[in-house]
Amino acid sequence: MTDRRIPLALDRVRLTYPDGDRRLTALDDVGLRVAAGELVAVAGPSGSGKSSLLAVAATLLRPDAGTVRLAGQDVGVLRAAARTALRRRAVGIVFQQPNLLPSLTSVEQLLVTAHLRGGRRALRRATERRRAEELLESVGLDASRRRRRPHRLSGGERQRVNIARALFGTPQVLLVDEPTSALDHERGARVAELLREVTRTHGTATVLVTHDLGVLGRADRVLHMTDGRLAE
Ligand SMILES: Nc1ncnc2c1ncn2[C@@H]1O[C@H](COP(=O)(O)OP(=O)(O)OP(=O)(O)O)[C@@H](O)[C@H]1O
Prior knowledge:
By secondary structure, the chain is α/β, with parallel strands linked by helices. Helix content is 38%, strand content 26%. The strands form 2 sheets. It has a 6-stranded mixed β-sheet with strand order 6-7-8-3-9-10, with helices on both faces. Helix 7 (155-167) runs parallel beside helix 8. The radius of gyration is 18 Å and the shape is globular. The model has no long low-confidence stretch (mean pLDDT 90). Bound molecules: adenosine-5'-triphosphate (ATP).
């Protein structure tokens, strides 16, 4: 039975990569359930499998074994096109580096996503523009900064645009990779607080990979990844 309040559920997930004539196990029997409105942080040493976990949860990588349920759907039974559609509809991804397009203002960074998701019409719709403005305001970007291109924003502001962009498609699942690594302590703490806030207000099931103790302290649960195994 599908539990709609658990937008992300991984069960007995195993992922390997080719490694010469052997296979390297990146995820070893991983189980994870994240509820709507819950912020789960994943810590662990370099190479322990954290990015692999996010890639599998984002349906970017297919596990060798186990199941991934996203927004109530078993990802494993979907064809590639349906998987991509589900990812676009249900998942927001925040990478370490914001990867904003240099020629676009903050508002336009969000509208480009609408364009990709909803076709050309979405770009013209005044409602989309209004929603972009509101989201940027909600992540703490004032009106003048919403008109700026990324080179005129600080690192913390760029990360805020990145987060607003990930939220633009109203995802049920938010996957975040080291969001504060390029920021100083204070800016990092504010971005962590923001992620906690958006998880609550947007009701996303959020998984956040981080080494940052300040971020770990703001999570509802902290899990540790060691050699591909996930534990409390
Ligand atoms: N495309 C790949 N091909 C082969 N091996 C890979 C590939 N990607 C990752 N690995 C290996 O899988 C293991 C897990 O890697 P992963 O990137 O998930 O770890 P991580 O915890 O995110 O590391 P970091 O904190 O350094 O980003 C590592 O041993 C890594 O070398």
